[in-house]
Specification:
Layout (H helix, E strand, L loop, with lengths): L2 H17 L1 H15 L4 E7 L5 E7 L22 H9 L6 H7 L3 E3 L6 H6 L1 H7 L5 E3 L1 H15 L4 H24 L4 H17 L2
Parallel strand pairs: 3-4
Antiparallel strand pairs: 1-2
């Protein structure tokens, strides 16, 4: 990560943390009152092929033992009523401002993968994770909705794993590598703005 990109992330993360603090507190209280504890969901993700970190989100699903893999149709019945709203508006990702302040992720970059996929496809993630992972990015803008459709159609954990590995990981990796070859602070700002516009036009 370049000094300019890190400075951009820090300044924006601090500003948004202050600006959004009433909304963050409100969402936290809503989750606590309606769905109980834990308010936050923490998941190990990878910021380099060898280094993991805990990614923070608001909890949107009922907790179960031995949860693993990405979310597909087999997990839909676990999403809470509050969680559906938070996911639709991507408000569940607001706690990731803390990850940005810590330097775990950036605003723009490839979505941070689970350790199991990095270990399963080291040749792919060795290249993808040359860029600092981010909340949004080229793959998020172009492929996120298609990924949701593909995974929602899965009815078992095995189907979800097969579809994600065969159809999602290679396509997202190609887009992430295109971003890596073009990244600048200016392009990051454009991708962030495109993400906001896409969320607005979807409602």
């Amino acid at each position: 990560m370049t000094p300019a990109k890190r400075a951009f992330d820090l300044i924006l993360a601090v500003g948004l943390s202050v600006l959004l603090s009433p909304l963050i507190i409100g969402v936290a209280l809503t989750v606590l009152i309606r769905d109980g504890r834990p308010v936050f969901y923490r998941s190990e993700r990878m910021k380099t092929p060898d280094t993991g970190f805990l990614l923070w989100k608001f909890r949107t699903m009922r907790t179960v033992d031995n949860d693993a893999g990405v979310s597909g149709g087999d997990k839909v019945n676990r999403i809470t009523r509050t969680g559906h709203t938070l996911r639709r508006c991507r408000l569940d990702e607001m706690p990731q401002l803390w990850n940005i302040l810590r330097g775990d992720i950036s605003f723009v970059g490839p979505r941070p993968p689970l350790r199991c996929y990095v270990e399963k496809y080291p040749e792919i993630y060795h290249e993808v994770l040359r860029s600092r992972p981010g909340i949004t990015g080229l793959a998020t803008i172009i492929f996120h909705r298609r990924e949701e459709v593909l995974l929602t159609g899965c009815r078992t954990p095995e189907d979800t794993e097969e579809v994600y590995c065969r159809q999602c990981i290679p396509r997202k990796a190609r887009l992430d590598l295109i971003y890596a070859g073009q990244r600048t602070v200016c392009k990051d700002f454009k991708l962030m703005w495109a993400t906001i516009l896409k969320r607005v036009t979807m409602h």
